[in-house]
Amino acid sequence: MSWVSPYLAVKDAEKSIAWYQQAFGFEQKSAMPGPDGKIVHAELVWQGHSVMLGPEGTCGGKTLSPATSGTLSPISLYVYVPDVDAFAQRAKAAGAKVETEPQTMFWGDRICGLTDPDGYSWCFATNVAEFDPTKIPS
User: Fold this and answer.
1) Which end is more exposed in the chain, N or C (fewer Cβ atoms within 10 Å of the end residue's Cβ)?
2) What is the rounded CA–CA span in Å between residue 118 and residue 17?
3) Is residue 136 pLDDT above 70, yes or no?
4) How much is the average pLDDT of 85-105?
5) Domains defined for the chain, CATH in brackets
6) For residue 58, what is the DSSP state?
7) What is the pTM of this model?
8) Which residues pair with 114 in a beta bridge?
9) In whole angstroms, what is the distance from residue 103 CA to residue 109 CA?
């Protein structure tokens, strides 16, 4: 495990796992069912790194997804992918809300901004150039 791994509170763990697999290509590493058989904790993997999730109320008992709480996600998860344009199309086809269409940024990454059904903000990127300080917008 990495020294820090995101833990997402989701409305429905089973649906979220399926969505992250379809839209983002994440792989399910593990899922733990509770006494009622519903998943209470899961770990998804992308390029060897983990994102954990569980139903709302996990990890402290008061956590809600941004979609449930009605607030914007206070963080954005920044994830590198091999081809951000193809990735954005796949995610969009699966129902991701596109906040920022793929575009090349001055720091050398081509990025897209997406929001998942639970309201989490994701920034996916492909590095396409070295950072050039002369391209910093003024």
Assistant:
1) C
2) 11
3) yes
4) 97
5) 7-135 (3.10.180.10)
6) T
7) 0.91
8) 98, 122
9) 8
